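Memo to structure team: turn this sequence into structure tokens by end of day. - J.P.
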Amino acid sequence: MTQPTESTDAGPSGGFLAEIKDAVTTRAALLVLGVLALQLAFITSYIGAFHHPKPSEIPLAVAAPAAQVAEQTAEQLAALPGKPLAPRTAGDEAAAIRLIENRDVDGALIVDPAGQTDRLLVASGTGASLSQALEEIVGAAEKARGRTVKVTDVAPAYRGDSRGLSSFYLVVGWCVGGYLCAAILAISAGARPANSARAVIRLGALLVYAIAAGLLGAVIAGPVLDALPGSLMALWGLGTLVVFAVGAITLALQGLAGVVGIGLAILLVVVFGNPSAGGAYPYPLLPPFWKAIGPALPPGAGTYAARSIAYFRGNGTTGPMLVLAAWAVAGSAITIACALFRGGRPGAAVGSGLPDDSPSVPRFVGEGTEAR
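Reply from structure team:
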């Protein structure tokens, strides 16, 4: 009699629920929940920053032939409900223009006591929404005083940059390149570098990429699309610093948190950085939280510096450049420190299916084995 043979197939799966538990690991579920949280933070941040722009303490210079007239006008403007303006007096029209060119103020009111019409100087290169807000606020205040106002744009947006947004989008592109380059380094060779030498190599590769990306972005925005004026070399330098700073931050966060660091970089640069960058709505139009964090993050620092290069001969770029340099140095230092601390234990490559903190495994057949 033929004896029944035992089946070599695996036992019953235990039902659909068991299949789900087997197919979806706890780590994958946590990562998906992290993505959901990141998505909700993105929606909250962008809508929160943009849904209700409200002017707040816009820097404005006030000049008049008599200092007393300028002081009285500044006091009246400072007393407007909601404090939409932060006026200060200037000696004369030339001094007021210098304040605008140095980016100390965003506009200037030139009072003519002998007539009924004053002149408002704006700079649409800082963003069309800001100059329009100034026109509306000062125009209403002048009307309430029985006066009219004539608007003069002393730093107009370039013909290829009608809304003053090209600087912002250029910087956003540079930022995207920075964190994507760092993420690709993780995908190809492990989220965490194996040692300090590998960390330095990654930073070196990032620097080469940043130099190329900075130049190409500046060329596209300038000579190719004719969207931005200003020094091509200065924009190239800015782009290199922006890309390297964002990439170094991403490498540092990957060194600290592994694959999760990519999500943290997106949270910092995209979720918090982009809506607070002063792009669509410059800082005086943003809610307090975004207005406060914007200048300290790479997108905000980069956007402000790019507009300064394009429309104000580079005036006002020192602070933003120092911010970007600080991120670049801190990111590089943390990346190297994390590699030294790990003592030669590289993380698994993204997508390998291994936990990021698992011991190093050979990437090729026979790698890491002794010859027999």
